[in-house]
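Final paragraph of the annual report: two paired records, presented back to back.
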Amino acid sequence: MTSLSGKTAVVTGASAGIGEATARALAGAGARVMLIARRLDRLEALAEDIGAGACCLAIDLASVDAALTMLDAATAQLGQVDILVNNAGILRTSHVDSFDLAELEPMIAINYSAVVRSSILFARAMKQRGSGQIVNISSIGASLSASGAGVYGSLKVALDRFTDVLRIELAGSGVRVGQVAPGTTSTEIFEDMKARGQPGWDEYIPAMVPQDIARAILFMCEQTGNANAARMHIYATSEAF
């Protein structure tokens, strides 16, 4: 029997990068997974590749109704949700002189509001059942004051605080809550920077790969008994922050 045999999981941002690697890792440990992202073609291909009852939902997480739609779809197709991994996120970087304010609301919607909504709705369902695991993907950027990353970093700070408070509010309920903060990892999150002619952060050092972060998420989800791995920072070995 594998470590997550009989469990179900919902993973957002599952069409590529850390989300895809996490979905594969959880499925490999025995969980049935629901894949959430906007790109249906990628989700369907991944679900077919994973097999083992994997299903998918294409949705824009910036929508205020997305979290409830996710919960309803997951309940209908999986029966119940044991694990929620809020991984979806976008990165827009720029100095104050050139930051495009049109990028502000989408970043807030995806990186913070969508995570808060889904965490609260899924937490209520898990608490009623008496068990569950929520994993919110943060960033070491929450601990850095770096030029050009003020909006991204501040949203991760807010997410960290929300996740900590959610863990405290759910203590003793059977619902575990944790956050995984990746360091520099080569994913599509840097594509916008590169498209604008900026070097991606993953070009400065030997960066991690999505599977490195997926292993940490899997470890968090495998905790049993009284253990809750509440905070994990995963750095590339070359990072010295």
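The closing record of the year follows.
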Amino acid sequence: MTATVTTPREDLAASTPQAHPAHRGRHLRRWLGNRLVQAFLLLVGLIWITPVAGLLLSSLRSAEASASSGWWTVLTDPGQLSVDNYVTLLGNAGMTQAFWNTVLISVPATALVVVIAALAGYAFAWLEFPGRDWLFLLVVALLVVPVQVGLLPVAKLFGQLGLFGTIAGVVLFHVAYGLPFAIFLLRNYFAEMPAEMLEAARMDGGSEWRIFVQVILPIGRPAIASLAIFQFLWVWNDMLVALLFADSSAQPLTVELQSQVRQFGSNIDVLAPGAFLSLVVPVVVFLVFQRHFVQGVMAGSVK
């Protein structure tokens, strides 16, 4: 009788359990699921970017080409593309003035909301004063008030104050209606910070203002950045408030584009690049700060 001799490698291979078919099936389903999700997201991205690409290509075509054929013909005839429309846009006094009006409205309305909400959020989160909880409850209640409710009363008030039809009036309206959500967001974010950190800063002799500037603001940067993006996108894309409160010399780009649409057949060479300019600015702002946007929204959404 002969004995069978096995090597250590063969013993290890014999003792190693083989992959169970159920495990292989689970891995296959997971792989297919990931691919399906990726394919779905790719499809959604293509659906979203198609009109954006069409608007960009239309802004680079002449009015005659846009009237005679669709923007997709550029794919077979790239010679249609030209920057002449943007040169015409820069020479259109109404569109350029509307663009700068939009900047003059969006930037102050965003900056004021961020500064005031950061101060109020810190006060509601960490300062003790009479009626604090009731005041914060009032701020939360203001979140459910639709903007349409305040249009006529505020218009009457602005008329009495001489602010109706001015850029300052539009900015003040956006600041007033942007503050409840901004205070709610930053207060929740600031309240999650460790109390021991603020107590240590106070024991070291730090004043409330110094704690706010040197401790709260650096740590709260994601929430502040997300709030700034929210406010900027809302104000930049607004047309309802500007349509009511801004006159012809203070109207932003959205109102100017709305008036240009009435003459779509004769001014597509100005309307298309103006619409793309109105679109691309907030998209660029969001893409630049999207990481802070996601972090701030997720952190400030719960207490």
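The chain has 15 helices and no strands. This concludes the annual technical report; the extension proposal builds directly on these records.
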